[in-house]
Every structure is written in C-alpha cells, then in structure tokens.
Amino acid sequence: MTNSKKPEFIYLKQEDVIAAGGLDMKLALADVELAFKMHGQDEIIQPNKTVIEFPDQESGQRRYLTVSMPAYLGGQINRAGIKWAAESVDNVRRGDLPYGMDLIILHDLERAHPLAIMDGTLITAIRTGAAAGVAAKYLARPDSKTAAFIGAGVIGRTTLEAIALSLPGLTEFRIFDLNTEKSRSIAKEFSGRWPIKIVASVQEAVEGADVIATMTTTRQPFIEAAWLKKGCFVAAMGKNEFEEEALLEADLLVVDEWEQFKHYQPSLLTQMYQAGHLKDGDVLNLREVILNRASGRTTAAGRIHFLSFGLACEDLVVAERVYQTAQSMGLGQSLSLWDRPHWL
Amino acid sequence: MTNSKKPEFIYLKQEDVIAAGGLDMKLALADVELAFKMHGQDEIIQPNKTVIEFPDQESGQRRYLTVSMPAYLGGQINRAGIKWAAESVDNVRRGDLPYGMDLIILHDLERAHPLAIMDGTLITAIRTGAAAGVAAKYLARPDSKTAAFIGAGVIGRTTLEAIALSLPGLTEFRIFDLNTEKSRSIAKEFSGRWPIKIVASVQEAVEGADVIATMTTTRQPFIEAAWLKKGCFVAAMGKNEFEEEALLEADLLVVDEWEQFKHYQPSLLTQMYQAGHLKDGDVLNLREVILNRASGRTTAAGRIHFLSFGLACEDLVVAERVYQTAQSMGLGQSLSLWDRPHWL
C-alpha cells in the first residue's frame, strides 16, 4: 500500500471468485473442515445470525429475508468478516436471479478496513455442499456404496459433488427432482466423473441407499422413515423433508452448530426442542466428532442424520482462500474507501 | 437495468458520498428525525447490533471491534441495508486512519441484491452529530443561549454543527479539548457561522451552559454534577464523562433506543440497570417525545440528559438519501455481482 491513508480493497465479482478457485470443491472441503476444527478449538468468534424476515401478507410465508453473519477467524488466519445475505421468492418466480444472493466482506482487523468485498452467492452454494461432504466423511459408513440425492438445484449439485469426493467408495448415484430437467443437467455435468442415475421417485432413490442427501424447498415432509436403510447417513440440507419421527428414531443427530439452531424458529429441530421433544444432550455438534471429542458412528447399523444451519465461518474460510488467490493472481477491481479521508 | 440477470450496483467512495450531500447537516437532521419518527411508527425493523470485541491481552481494554447493524426501513422508503463497522485503537496510535471505519450496503428487497455499497465512515460521524441535534431540538430549553462542547474530535465537530443548527437562539459557544489544536481547528472552520470560544477548562465550559455536549473517549468521569446549571440539556455522545450520581439526579434520562442499551455492557446506563439502580420506566426513548407520546421538557428548571447508542436506521436513512442523490447525479462506480450468473 503506497499511501497508508488510502484504505484500498478489491472487489471480486462472481467471475473473479471462480477464477480464484471458488468452484474448487476439493479445496472447499478442506476449508470447511478447517473451519469446524478451528471452531472446536475456540479460534472462531461467531455470534448468532441476525435474520430479518418479511412474510407475505396473504400466506404468512416468508417472502424476503436478510441475514447478517459476522464472524472472526483466529488462529493463523486472523480475519474479521461478514456475509450479508438476502433472499427473495420473487427471483424464483421471475427466474432471472438466484433465490438467495450474497456479499462477503473480509476485514483487516488491525487497520479496521475492508480488504475484499466479493460475490458470496457462489461461495454460499459451495460451502453448503462442502459441509455435507465433511459430515459424510465423518458420519457415513466407510463402505457406503449407494447414494441418493433428492433435489437437483444449486445446493443439490454442490452437495452431490462434495459427498462424491468425500466418499470415493460410492459406486451408485441416484438423483430425483420433481423437475427431471434439473436432474438431467447435473447427471450430464458430472457424466465423466460419476455415473448418476435419474430415478422416477423419491422412494426409488432412497430405499437401500447408504447415503441420502436432501436439499429441497418443501414445506411438507415426504420421506418415510420406513424407506431408510439401517446404517444409512442422511445429510438434510433442506429443512422439512423428514418427519419428526424420523429424527427421533435416528441413532444420532448431528448439526453444524446447535446453539444457533436453538434460536431459529423455522427449523423443525428447534420446534422439537421448544416442544420438549429434544433436549440439549440429544444433538451433537459435528466439530466434536471431527476433533474426536465425541463418538460419531459407533455401529454399522446406526442411522445418523446431519442437519445444517449454515455458518459464517464456513463462508469466511472459503472467502479468505479465494481472496488470497485473487491477490496472488491480480484479480478483481481495486477500490478504496477514499482517496484522502475528509476527517481523521 | 438493461440485463435483468446482471445485478448492478454503485460503489460510492467517501468523495462521492460528500458530492452527493453526505456532509449536509441540515438534511441529515431531517433524515435522523424521520428515522426516529418511522421507528416510533413501527416502520423500522432493527435487530440489536452484533458486536465482536477483541480486548487487549494486557489491559483488557478493547483493541479491535466489529459491529454489524442490519435494519429495514419501511414506509415510503422500503429499503433493507446494513452498516458494517470496525474500530481499531492502532489507527489512533498511527494517526493515518480514523479510529472507526464503516461500510454501508443498501439492498433492493424484492430483487435481493445490493443497490449501493458506500463509505459509511463519514455518514456515521454525521448521523451521530445529527442525533444530538434532534435531541437538543426536543429537549433543550428553547431559550438556550450558551452551549458547551467537550471534545473536539470528529464527533465533536458534527455534534456542534448539529446543535448549533437545531438551536438557532444560541449566542455563546464554548469548546474544550485536551488538545487545543483540535478546538482551534473547529473554531476556525465555523468562524463565519458561529462565534466559538476556546476555553481553558471543562469547568469553565460547563458552568452556566444551557446546553452541554460531550464526546470524549475518557474512561473516567470528569464532569461534576455541581457544575451543571438548572434546566440544562446534556447530550452525552461519549460514554463516561458523567458519574452515576449525575445521571441519577437528572430530571429526565432520554436515549435513542433503550432496548439496545440494556444489552450492551460497556455503557454506564447498562451497568446502572443491571445493578438495579435504574429500572425500565426510568429511561425514555427519544422517539416517544418526538411523536408527542411522552413529555420531554416539562419545566424550565429540569435537567435532561440524552445518551446515544447509535442506530442502524440513522445510518441507513442518510445513506438512502445519499444513494438517491448519487444516482441522480450519476456518481459512483458501477459494479455488478456478476456478468452472467454461474448458477440460477
């Protein structure tokens, strides 16, 4: 920085994020696993998300949403940052913009100014899939052969890639979406890497599967507990695919961060907790398993469910790598808070 | 927007914010008063700030700080946004950057993408002063003649301008700062508008003043209650200038938002509340006075203290005006989240 008074930073649009490795799922898996480890080692400060919801006047369903997710990554990283997310059902209806769109800001702590502002939409999709992949690595049976993917949207795609990379022993990949075209698109994209079979029903996908990943926007449960194979691992990245019974009958419930779940009403897990059907000791944080402080899979027959809330530290650890790569490649647009500060 | 898939927004550096009217205190006073009114009319959604503090290992005093302040402005404005603030004592030591540096993001709710990202450092200083000015308008004696300003930093400067504009009957302006050079700089800047007298001590400034505004970084109280004139109005924009007794003996305590004060430990008011020395009914929100739902000044002899927490809605309402002006003037740098979205 030639002029110390000029707080420069870079802006990375989505194309820059991609050029800097934002789509690299192998790296994202390592990033997110690191975030979980750091979190367990108290190297992360991560307040609860702040959600502002704008329900539809008629349906009462949420229509718009903003979420602020600040966090601090300590350890060797030492970076403050925030993801600022917005969601709009209008975008889905129109079809020209993603449902959720995100910005990520990385901050220099000592100098208190931004280092990077970047599109966080792509990183959100990547890190969400990566969290499912990390959970699968620690919680699925190592001899898992068959995986079922329910929902073939953006998160469905990233979750499939992450789980396929995390469990290299998988040989059968089934996918189902109400919109077959979406399933076809994913099968085609990954055709050189994994044999993905489009199946005709949820039941056909789920029955006999060792790994089941769900990422739909349903408001009604549609997966029956009776379809689930003994010893299977379930990554529930959507919110409502399973009935309460399916969760209560599971041998182990694991989440990314129970403390945040407890405060977020729309989650089924939260509702179960508030109704007294679950207590604190019934749900395990994934980081405890990763750090070997708690047992994850102890029997071949146990059914384990992983539920994801989505954490700021996952976003920021990926964003930090993307930022470092972008810097070394000279990517992005240089901006500054000012040329000369009006006041000091 | 020619390409609906390309979510464009503008970046406004501080020079753009200034060119778009960011320094205009008259407009900022109207903005902040509007924000208080909207807040009182339930047109604002404003979760508590999320603060991450990094205390110094040796002193235990905070060294770095990040604050995320999301809010929604409803009514005719209908805008979501966030201020993301960071503070570093290192900047003060080095002297090349402000203590606090801020970004403000304004969001289109229906399309869920940013409309503007701008320097929020200047707006933070302006709106903080403006809040003191609005409070003075409603709580100071209308016949106030003499004003004392303790602290001649950036907030001292904006507070002086705001109070001087809000109380046009003021004829005597006293200023004190440990650093006389700073007082001189403010006196010189405003020399054509208001006669500002640099005084030699806090006591000399405060005694006999009808309006007292404090904005220092002191950790120790230094203003004695005995110095305060009957009927005076105090705007305490700093945190620790007054002893608890001075607050307890006041005839009325008014804040910008009691709900947020109650949760923020570093505030003396919060500590008094937690110690049971204050109860909920003892503190009034300024918006209640502005909307005529509660009495502010009822007697000429009453001493009224206003304490400021600083609210996201104050930042966003100023930022929204600056954004609209910048748009109409064609200011700022055009950016986009992407040229074409990788995923929809």
What's the helix and strand layout?
Two copies of one chain form a homodimer.
Chain A: E1 8-12, H1 14-19, H2 25-40, E2 44-45, E3 50-55, E4 62-73, E5 79-88, H3 89-94, E6 100-108, E7 113-119, H4 121-139, E8 146-150, H5 154-166, E9 172-176, H6 180-189, E10 196-198, H7 202-206, E11 211-214, E12 233-236, H8 244-248, E13 252-255, H9 258-261, H10 268-274, E14 283-285, H11 286-290, E15 304-307, H12 312-329, E16 333-336
Parallel strand pairs in A: 1-7, 8-9, 8-11, 9-10, 11-12, 12-15, 13-14, 13-15
Antiparallel strand pairs in A: 1-16, 2-4, 3-4, 4-5, 5-6, 6-7
Helix pairs in contact in A: 2-4, 2-12, 4-5, 4-12
Task: Report what the structure shows.
The structure is a homodimer of 344-residue chains. With 344 residues, chain A is of the alpha/beta class. Chain A folds into two domains: 8-123 and 312-336, ornithine cyclodeaminase, domain 1 (2-Layer Sandwich), CATH 3.30.1780.10; 131-307, Rossmann fold (3-Layer(aba) Sandwich). Chain A is 33% helix and 25% strand. The first copy, chain A, is built from twelve helices and 16 strands. The first copy, chain A, has helices spanning 14-19, 25-40, 89-94, 121-139, 154-166, 180-189, 202-206, 244-248, 258-261, 268-274, 286-290, 312-329; strands spanning 8-12, 44-45, 50-55, 62-73, 79-88, 100-108, 113-119, 146-150, 172-176, 196-198, 211-214, 233-236, 252-255, 283-285, 304-307, 333-336. In chain A, the strands form two sheets. In chain A, strands 1, 2, 3, 4, 5, 6, 7 and 16 form an eight-stranded mixed beta sheet that branches. In chain A, a hairpin with a 4-residue loop joins β6 and β7 (113-119). The two termini of chain A are 18 Å apart. The model of chain A has no long low-confidence stretch (mean pLDDT 94). Chains A and B meet through α1, β3, β4, β5 and α3 of A and α1, β3, β4, β5 and α3 of B.
